[in-house]
Amino acid sequence: MDELIQYEEMTRTERVRAALRGDEVDRIPVAFWHHFRPEGSGRRQAELTLQFFDEAFDLDICKVMPDIPYPFPRKSIGDVDGWRLIEPLDLKRSPFVQQRLRTIEFLRDELGDDTPIVMTVFSPLTEALYFATDHDTLSRHMREAPAVVHAALDTIAQNLADAMELYLAAGADGVFFSLQGAMREDQPGGLGEARYREFGKPYDLKALRGAGDGWLNILHVHGDGGLLIDTVLDYPFDVLNWSDRLTGLSLRELRAKTTKCLMGGWHEFGALSNGPIEAIRAEAEDAIAQTGGRKFILANGCSVPDDTPEQWLEAARDIAEQLEVE
């Protein structure tokens, strides 16, 4: 008899909580995601999210990926004074927050307590990178007017922290906190360790205070290579996600660095989005071998392309059901 049949079927929440503790699970928790295009509607966002994560693929984590950006013009800051225009948000009036709350409330009503819900949040520095006309402009302002940039980042961090408190109060179980810039300087968009510790880390930590009551806070370290992952391992998070196949920073290597739950195993631009099925299975089985299947969630390292054929995602979900854990 298959060993997996020994265990009673868990709810999604029970399965993910057990994985975080390192306990036995009835099967490996699984998740994957891509971006939707709800055009600003919180209700439409919720409907698309529910259809994908619950109805189509029966995934263990429902990850909300809103398309309403932080309310500051993209690529608009070309001179230092532009950073002085970043102000505290009126969260009760801002669609940026209110549509997210509407999404969470709808999903929680539909899913009950048996499915974890996480809200995607970009780090303060990530948002700032979107506001600057380009990466070099932000880097120059960091050198020429660090106090002005610090003040802007502090305001963004407080806005995000206050928003995350509302997300959790509305029913989210945590946040998917995505950060950029924590890479070596020789990587596109990389700040290097010294500058990240100065301009990234303090504001990441300030923002994350708003998610302190969550039990499923996922830290996503974004980048194709040169990740300064040691710089962020002391953050308050429950799950660590990064592009383990793309960056060359393996699950096995991170298992030696942290006792936190790891999330990954599939190359988001590889077999998961292009096939064949045998390669999807091989990556999943290799991920189990690297982690022992404990404190592990099988997932993509970052978003799969939006036009990924569903046949490969369906195959991945079927494979997750069949995996055996040591």
Automatic annotation (TrEMBL):
GO terms (BP aspect): porphyrin-containing compound biosynthetic process
InterPro entries noted in UniProt: Methanogen_methyltrans (IPR052024), UROD/MetE-like_sf (IPR038071), Uroporphyrinogen_deCOase (IPR000257)
Signal peptide: none
Residue ranges occupied by any Uroporphyrinogen decarboxylase (URO-D) domain in the UniProt entry: 73-320
Membrane-crossing segments per the record: none
GO molecular function annotation: uroporphyrinogen decarboxylase activity
PANTHER family per UniProt: METHYLCOBAMIDE:COM METHYLTRANSFERASE MTBA
The protein's name in its UniProt record: Uroporphyrinogen decarboxylase (URO-D)
Species of provenance: uncultured Thermomicrobiales bacterium
Lineage, opening ranks: Bacteria, Pseudomonadati, Thermomicrobiota, Thermomicrobia, Thermomicrobiales
